[in-house]
Amino acid sequence: MNLPSRRLRTVCLGLSLLVGLNARVAANPTPGLASQPLAPLAGAPAAKLFSPVPAASSGIVTENPYNDPRMWAQRYHEFEVGPIGTGVAIGDYDNDGRPDVFIVSKTGPCKLFRNLGDWRFEDVTAKAGFARAAGWGATPLEEWKQGAAFADVNNDGRLDLYVCRFDAPNWLFINQGDGTFREEAAARGLAVADASGQAAFCDYDRDGGLDLFLQTNLLSSEKFPDGQRDYLFRNNGDGSFTNVTDRAGISGLTQGHSATWWDYDADGWPDLYVANDFAPRDQLWRNNRDGTFTDVIDRAVPHMPFSAMGSDLGDVNNDGLIDFYVADMAASTHEKDMRTMADHRGKSRDYPEDGSATQVLHNALYLSTGTGVVTEAAFLAGLSASDWTWSVRLEDLDNDGRLDLHCTTGMHRESHNADLILRVMTADSAIERIRLMKGSPVLKEPNLAFRNLGDLRFESAGAAWGLDEVGVSFGSAFGDLDGDGDLDLVYTNFEQGATVLRNDSRSGRRLVVELRGTRSNRFGVGATVRLETDAGPQVRQLVLTRGYLSTSEPILHFGLGEQQSVRRLTVNWPSGHEQVFTDLAADQRLIITEPAATPPAFTGPAKPATQFTEVSAAASLVHTVREIPIDELIRQPLLPMRQNRRGPALAVGDLTGDGTDDIFLGGTPRDAARLLVATESGPYANRDAGGLRRESNLSDGPALLFDADGDGTNDLLLTSSGVGLPGNAPDYQPRLFLNRSHQGLQPAAPDALPALPISAGALAAVDFDRDGRLDVFLGGRTQPGQYPLPPTSALLRNSGGRFEDVTEEFASGLRKIGLVTSALWTDIDNDGWPDLLLALEWGTIRYWRNREGRGFEDLSETAGFAAAGSGWWNSLAAADFNGDGRLDYAAGNLGLNTPYHASPEAPALLYRGDFKGTGGSQHIEAYYEDGRLLPRRNRRQLGAQLPAVLKKFPTFDAFAKATLPEIVGADKLAAARVFTATEFRSGVFLSQPDGRYRFTPLPRAAQLSPIQGLAAGDFDGDGRADLFAVQNSYAPIPFYGRFDSGVGVLLSGDGHGGLALRSPAETGLIVRGDAKALAMLDLDRNGWPDFLVSRNSDTTLAFRNGGTGERTSFGVRLQGPAGNPTAIGARLTVEYADGTTQSAEVQAGSGYFTQSSATCFFGSPAGNPARQLSVRWPGGARSSAPVPARANHVTLSSP
Length: 1199
Hints:
InterPro entries: Crtac1, FG-GAP, Integrin_alpha_N, UnbV_ASPIC. Residues 524-590, 1127-1184 form the ASPIC/UnbV domain. Residues 1-27 form the signal peptide. By secondary structure, the chain is mainly beta. The protein has three domains: 50-328 and 363-530 and 539-551, YVTN repeat-like/Quinoprotein amine dehydrogenase (Methylamine Dehydrogenase, Chain H), CATH 2.130.10.10; 615-901 and 982-1186, Methylamine Dehydrogenase, Chain H (7 Propeller); 908-981, no CATH class. The protein is 10% helix and 36% strand. Strands 7, 8, 9, 10, 11, 12, 14 and 15 form an eight-stranded antiparallel β-sheet that branches. The protein has a five-stranded mixed β-sheet with strand order 47-46-45-44-79, with no helix packed on it. Strands 56, 57, 58, 59 and 60 form a five-stranded antiparallel β-sheet that branches. A hairpin with an 8-residue loop joins strand 33 and strand 34 (488-493). Helix 9 (418-425) runs antiparallel to helix 10. It is globular.
């Protein structure tokens, strides 16, 4: 009866508001594009970037009481771990062009503030009709409220409001278009009564209506101790909803703090990340494009926070891909850490053996690769710790074109304090436990802000920017509250009113984009906007729910720095429409309307063709080598890195005499070594290697295929590794197997090798004395149970198939040189004699110059290798990266994305000494913070080994404040042996005109994880040397977590020493897990270098190189005499048409636990083809030959 007239009045009011807005929008001749000038920057420059706007002047007067007695009684546990925060929603509910603010109160009334302009707001809560909702204003208190979300649920162009409550029906307020709202949750199917946290609206099925994911937490610790199920509701198209949780495959119990829509695989369909606290693991729901979802967290991420809190998305490195950040509770200082989370880390369990992602006690910064697999860079970026964090928001706060980070922090009590936990756990009753907690101080902490400096570097900016308010802050939301084109901030606080901060940025141009959907939802939620300026690309995706319990103004903000215009702006709508605009001026608000025409069929972004293809199955190279776990902490309780599980090794060489490469894959006590023989049809055949198996607790170490006995065929030298047996156990003795043709590999005579029971880390062969026989360096990796004392290493001279230890005679300093991880025979000084280059843990790169076969001298300092510093070096590879005709050397190191940091001023330290005073030895790790020497281990860990520590520091709080000298005594530290690391970056030693070498670090993005296997050469056929590395290490004890953030890195050389990182989406090279050896070989015999990778307790991976463009590649194989049939030690140089050259050496042993093919590969670009090949043979002779046009293989015989 009255409904038609009421609807007519509503429509008229809405049209009048729209007309009023359009009156201020400048006409634009481009279809779908309108613009609006930004408000002028008023007043004098402020002292800081953000200025507080007092409630008395703004009118935003709120309270946030927590006065429900049940919070400290029957609902204590639920309150403590779940529904503690409150949120904010910012949006222009009345369509007047000014964003309004809704603020949640925990047990008091929520409030809506209408933006009147000029930083004046009116409380319109009563006018808006919220009081009509059941439960609103209940006395003496309301049920707990949580999150709030502005979203247009019925697609009428007006923002509606959804408010989540705890154990009470959620509210859905439908915007009536006349300044009022009507609560309709039950009528529309959304009156959920659960532990509701926040609603995340998104059009997941791309039908034009906003759907809803409802994140929950703990409802009843007694009935449901693991949490609740989350909900997924599909929009029926009329603003009503259907619960499709089961149908969509959403399952599992959660204790969520945030749920964020994030297209992690860049396929154009919104996926969903759910951040869960405590035991329930985070979930990453991949959108299957058919209305269903699959949790792919283990396939996509290397690890996830254990206590996941707020989360947000954005392109932090400006590579055009949307990244993701999830907060934990990691402490930002040593003192905070040692009294809280360090004790929790000390109780961490060992890693799962099923390959699943682990939970870690620090923040995660996931960098999208565009492949459905992410890397993680929180430590590298300086964002691993942000204290007890709630909301995290990635926005460009200073308008410089890079996303910065804002974090709200604090807690109602320091409930993770180890001393407080101990008092609570030993209390006599539940009532007493709650009383102790309630009587402890509130954990008031400064909020944090980090400025993005570019290149994955962030610096703390909270104090400088005025964003360091001390207190307990929860949900936060951004919006351009004054229309000047920068982002202002509102967040809620524990037991006090909300904070409102005005962004007073006066630098940096800006652009604000407002979307109006036609075929898509009306606000363009889910759309992606990309822009290009002379400074580079930027991308934003419109996602409503971000951070914690909050939604921001539904606009996209771009800081442009000094750029005055945008060259190109592209909008990709959820419907499939794409719009492109060019030559847009900065400093304006763009209103972009989606075309009304039927959109083209959505196919998603095209996947680029990759250079490499994984062919493990096709090549029959899927082999798993599993380890038997060993508890190494029994012998060395404070061991930082476990010494077992270092392989498996790979060795490539011709075992059958057919001229093609076969493969040796090292074994373990659980899975025997394998001989994989090349076949004419392509796949590799598993050859019987039973003779290599033995009953032992040791895993195989590095292996070599070379002619040990001078008969012209390759034999096998096999070492042992790890710490499965005590030091000097007979099973550590290397074993030599001679190739007896049809009889296979047979054990050599017992006296073929001297007694050297070494846990090996490196093995390399060359004819160092030019007697025609291949000699060997055997590098010791560790002394079992004695880490980090240097083990034995040895130089073995081949005396006609029998090897003698000549270390003392030729290079006595090699005997105890340190923990050897890689060895490379290479002619560093270009005198024709192979020198020895070594990588060490707790040491420098060492260069031992060959004095023409008479001995070796250490020239590490003189040649510049030592100048790089002491590190945890892992691997070595050689190539001429700078094109000067001399070989340069790549060295893999720990990287910059772990808890460890090192510099000459603040090195990483390990002390080994008698700290107990009992005549034994213990080791203690240490580091510097603000010039203070501090222990890495917590009170409980050190106290277990040094009981005096517990007596001296009876509380965790006291221990946390103490320096290491105060804890163990300065005299004991002075008397201890000290191991030092000053450089953790991987890099390249480039040859200099003066004959020295200069260390140049690899790009920061290549420092994401420890580099293990390493290979150098021309992989893309452009005539310039490239570098490929595989990464990660599962050696760290659980206290530190796995170093597993990498997926491998391919860097293209520019011929002048520069190396540029290539995207995995472009290369096709993705290596997850505990990658170890990396062998270069030609799997399909097409002249392009392919790769074979081993992974500890995981399958091998083979990658075929498909080449690039018009370029060709060819492999060169040398035929030497018996004793050295593949000419190991030869130097090959290819000259190109323009006179430039590329060089390579035939090496037996390089990288990490690796021997690559004796074939050397060279590219031949179409415009600069290879012309001439020159060889300097191991004995000093030289020869040359022209390179046949478009040859795949070249074979040269020794003169």
